[in-house]
Amino acid sequence: MAVLFVGYPRCSTSNKAQKWMDGQGIAYTFRHIVDDPPTASELSAWIAASGLPFRRFFNTSGRLYREMGIKKKLDQGMGQEDATELLATDGLLVKRPIVVGDGFVLVGFREQDWAATLL
């Protein structure tokens, strides 16, 4: 099974997830989330496929998230369309890693969830 791995080389969670995938022998194509950020349409499709609330796609521990006051905007009712447009403006706003495969999307690295889906 070949999957798309969207990550950031300077992110320890992305690196941990990548090492785990390599250790499991899972084939993937790497996409640098800053150099080639997801588009709003990709994010919309990934959100739908993940079954997660769109808020889960924000990198809540990132500097930009805090500087831009995104939590407040979300709490005040920012909708999914506006959120995906905002996420598409800068890859550092997006939670990582993201793994996209046939019929599934994983956001953030939780080894148990990844194993259940990928192995």
The percentage of residues in β strands lies in 15-25%
CATH superfamily: Glutaredoxin
| Spans where pLDDT lies below 50 across 5 or more residues | none
| Count of DSSP-assigned helices | 6
Task: Characterize the overall form.
Answer: globular
Structural class based on helices, strands and sheet pairing = alpha+beta
| Strand adjacency order, main sheet | 2-1-3-4
| Domains (count) | 1
Whole-number average pLDDT?
96
Overall helicity: 40-55%
* Rg calculated over all Cα atoms: 14 Å
The CATH topology label is Glutaredoxin
SSE order, one letter for each helix or strand: EHEHHHHEEH
In short:
It contains 6 helices and 4 strands, in the order βαβααααββα. It has a 4-stranded mixed sheet with strand order 2-1-3-4.
Descriptive account of the structure:
With 119 residues, the protein is α+β, with helices and mostly antiparallel strands. The protein has a single domain (2-118), classed as 3-Layer(aba) Sandwich (Glutaredoxin). Helix content is 43%, strand content 17%. It contains 6 helices and 4 strands; from the N terminus they run βαβααααββα. A 4-stranded mixed beta sheet has the order 2-1-3-4. Strand 1, helix 1 (12-24) and strand 2 (27-32) form a beta-alpha-beta unit.
